[in-house]
Amino acid sequence: DGADAPPLKGPEEDDLLGEHVERLGSSIGEPCAWASCIRIVNPSTLTTTHCIEMDNNEAALCITTVSFDSAPHLGTLLAVGTAQSLSFYPKSCQGGFIRLYQFTADGKKMNLLHKTAVEDIPGALIAFKGRLLAGIGDTLKLFDLGKMRLLRKCEYKKVPSRITTLDVLGNRVYVGDGQESFFFFKYRSADNTFFCFADDIV
């Protein structure tokens, strides 16, 4: 008896794998293959009102809302940073992008305004003084809105490693990178530059 029984497998082969397949499906992507989407959810009913899937194997990495002083008629826009064919080790991608979406139908839908190519992986986005502040690789960049793409207005290239977090308060910008620590910047509107006045290297 038991000669025809299938060979026993460890729990990592049976129970956990079966639970994973039941929850997430059996398909497993190839290396550097991504599936990302932007979803608008009604908080009252928890139902999806609109969903946009990223094409061209782009991974959505950061997101923020922004209102541009140069285009107040567009209202609040959604900015999404994406990377195409992203690899974490070694860190690389075929291209980075910032997508801008405009809300429609009382915020229940959105339309793509334009998509701007950037030089590296966008790690963080935040609204700053009527413009869009972005951490692109190890560079801090300030963008304004153009008709066909975002327009670079200012940048700071001396952050030691890639930028992962951004926060702002008044003229100050707080930058966290992926290796060193935090850096405190001040924006000088008179000469349109960022000045690093404090850091916390650990």
Assign a percent range to the helix content. Answer: under 10%
Radius of gyration: 21 Å
- The overall pLDDT, averaged over residues, is 87
Task: Give me the strand/helix succession.
Answer: HEEEEEEEEEEEEEEEE
Beta-strand proportion: over 45%
Q: Return residue spans where pLDDT drops below 50 for at least 5 consecutive residues.
A: 5-13
Characterise this structure.
By secondary structure, this protein is mainly beta. 5% of the residues lie in helices and 54% in strands. It is built from one helix and 16 strands. The strands form five sheets. It has a four-stranded antiparallel beta sheet with strand order 3-4-7-8, with no helix packed on it. It is globular and about 60 Å long. The relative contact order is 0.11. The model is unreliable at 5-13 (pLDDT under 50).
Q: What attributes characterize this protein structure?
A:
202 residues, mainly beta, four-stranded antiparallel beta sheet, 1 helix, 16 strands, 54% strand
